[in-house]
Specification:
The chain is α+β, with helices and mostly antiparallel strands. It contains 3 helices and 5 strands. The protein has a single domain, classed as Histidine kinase-like ATPase, C-terminal domain (Heat Shock Protein 90), CATH 3.30.565.10. The chain has a 5-stranded antiparallel β-sheet, covered by helices on one side.
Length: 147
């Protein structure tokens, strides 16, 4: 990590999809407070995907299990960490996939989204925690389409 932490926030929610919108709304306000509103769409997309994966795949929507989201900002990065209480998954076999083979495919899109909108993607050995780093000095998003 480059630089020291300027701000941070954490959420802990039961493993239920119904909590994701509230977290993203609060996250949007938090980003605006720290003058990072221009990163709201990609950060919320990363958070939604990571929370969905943790809730659906990691915790199997078991509301007795918890999912944690932590966000930190430095002068150069937004760092997102999502961890669930599930058993994890074999992330090493999937991390090298760079393209979706079919656009209607419902599995595997999360890693593709992570790679597209984060400059770094790291999993813990168990596969129940992901750390996503988005540079705020250079844009990670794909170029806008020409009008």
């Amino acid at each position: 990590m480059i630089g020291s932490t300027l701000s941070q926030r954490q959420w802990v929610i039961p493993a239920a999809i119904k909590y994701i919108d509230r977290v993203c709304s609060e996250l949007s306000v938090w980003l605006l407070e720290y003058e990072l509103g221009e990163h709201s769409f990609p950060v919320q997309l990363l958070v939604r995907e990571a929370l969905n994966n943790a809730i659906l795949h990691g915790c199997q929507q078991n509301e007795t299990l918890l999912v944690q989201l932590a966000i930190q900002t430095t002068a150069t990065e937004i760092i997102l960490t999502v961890q669930d209480e599930g058993p994890g998954f074999d992330w090493q076999s999937l991390l090298n996939k760079t393209e979706l083979t079919e656009t209607h495919q419902t599995s595997g899109r999360g890693l593709w989204i992570y790679k597209l909108f984060a400059s770094q993607v790291e999993f813990n050995p168990a596969g129940n925690q992901v750390r996503l780093v988005r540079s705020i000095l250079t844009q990670n998003a794909p170029p806008a389409a020409d009008d």
